[in-house]
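Q: Here's a chain of 543 amino acids. Please give me its 3D structure as C-alpha cells.
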Amino acid sequence: HLFFFLQCLAEPPRPQYGGGIVRNPEFNDGLKGWSVFGYGKLAERTSDTGNRFLATDGRSLSHQSMSQKVYLQRGMLYTFSAWLQVDQGNTTVTAIFKTAKDGFVHVGAVEARSGCWSMLKGGLTAKSSGPAEFYFECENTSVEIWVDSVSLQPFTEDQWRAHQAESISKVRKKTVAIQAVDANGRALPGASVSVQQKRPGFPFGCAIANTILENSAYQSWFTSRFTVTTFENEMKWYANEREQGKETYTDADAMVAFAKQHGIAVRGHNVVWNDPQDVQNWVKSLPTQQIGEAVNRRFNSVMPRYRGKVIAWDVVNENVHFSYFESQLGQNASSVFYQQAHQLDPNALMFLNDYNTLEAPVDGNVTPDKFLQKLWQIQSFGNLSRMAIGLEGHFGTPDISYMRSALDKLAGANVPIWLTEVDVAHANQSKDLEDILREAYSHPAVQGIVMWGAWHPQGCWRMCLTDNNFKNLPTGDVVDKLIFEWKSDNLAATTDADGLHRAELFHGEYKITINHPSSNSSSMRSLTVDSASQNNSVLRIIV
C-alpha cells in the first residue's frame, strides 16, 4: 500500500483495518459516532460517484473540525490514518488527540489538496489509559476540511515486536542451502558444516571525532563493532575553512585513512549547511556573487578530495528546515548544489539530511510530506538518480508507532533511507535507544543506521556509548546486544541424507567450511548473502 501514501486520489480507498476502533469510519451512517469540535459546523457530503464523506462548514478557528471520542489503553501502540481533502489550494492538516492526562498529542500531518484525497498516516503510543478525542487542525481557516476512511488500530507491544521479527526475517535474511558433494557430484550425508560471518551486510555504525586518532582503546572498541562512520565535525566547511582561503584537511584526511585501514565506510558530512548559525561569518559577509563563488570552491575542494573514499554526502545539510543559501542565491540553490554534487562524485549517494521528521510529529516545517516535497523539488530539477533520505534521529522520548508511520510515508519516495545521527537524551536512554534501533532495522526501506555518539573525554554531544575507559554504558550494552542478535555466526551443523544443510542467514559475507570424516579433507568457500540472493539457492561444495 506504500504508493497510496504519496498519491492524491480521486476517491479515498477503504479505511485501513476496516477502521479499527473508529465508529462509522466511512460516514455511511451519517454523523453517527462523530461530533463537532470547537463549536464549528459540519456537513454531510456525497461525491458525484456516491461516496459519502464529512466536511466542515465555515471555520473561524484552526481547531474547528470533526471529532470522535475513543478510549486509549496505556502501553498500546496505535496506528492512525485518514484521507483528507480541502476545498481550495493546499495546506497542512494535523491530526491531534485531546487526552485527559497527557494533553494534546499530535499524531501526524498531511499536505491536503483540493480536487483529490491525500492520506494522513500517523501513530501514537498511549502513555496512560483513559478517554480521548481525536480531531483535525488546520491553521488556514479559510478552507473546508473534508475527511473520509478514518482508522485507529491498536496493537499490543507483543504484536508490534512479532511484526518486527517477521519483517527482519523477510528483509534482512535469506535461507541458503549448502550441499556437500564428492568429486563425482554425489551427495555427502554426515559432513560437518561450519558458517562464520566475516562482515555483516547491514551498515550499522557510529560517529567519530578526532579524539579517536591518538587513542588506541577507543580505536579497538570502535573497530570491533562498526562498519560505517560519520565524522562529527571534521569534514564540515567551518572546520576545513575557518578563515577564507585557509583550508585544512589534516584531521579529516587522518580519519579517512583510519577508517579505510579498518574497512569502515565513511559518510561525507557535510558539504554545506543551510542553517545560517552554522555558516562562517566570513561567508555571510561576502556580496551575493562571491557567496556563490565561495560555495562553488567548497564543492570543488572537498568532493574531489574524498571522491571514492566516501559512500555518501550530506550535500546541503538541514535544507528542509533552513534556507540560508536559497535566501542568498535563489529558490533553486539546493537543486543546483545537488546537481553539482552528482557530477563531482558519480558514485556516492546524495542525502537530504534533516531532523524532526522521524523524531516527533510536532515540527510542521519538516513533516514527512514537507520532506518529500523538498526531495521532489530537487529531483525534478535534473535527472538526479542517486538521491537518498537522511533522518538524523535526535530523539527525546520516541513514539515508535509514529516513527513507523513516518518511515512508511517516506518509503514511498523509493530512495534509500538512512538514520544518520541517532541519539536519545533523557532518563530512559538505553530502553528507548533499543526500541528506535529495532524499529529502524525492521523497516524494509531503511538501508543503514549511524548513531551520534562520538567520544570526548568531557562527554559526548547528547549520548555516549562508553565511559572514558571504553567500558560500555547501558547504551553500549544495547548496541552490543543488537549487533550479536543481528548476525549469523559460528553456526555448526551436519548435512542430511541429501548432503544438505539449510541455514537462515543474515545478509553479510561468510566463510563456509565443510569437513567429511571419510575423505578426511575439508573445503572452504566464501559466500555473500544480500537482498539480491535467491531464497533456498543451493551452494554446492566439493569435499
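Q: Can you summarize the key feature?
A: The chain has a mean pLDDT of 95.
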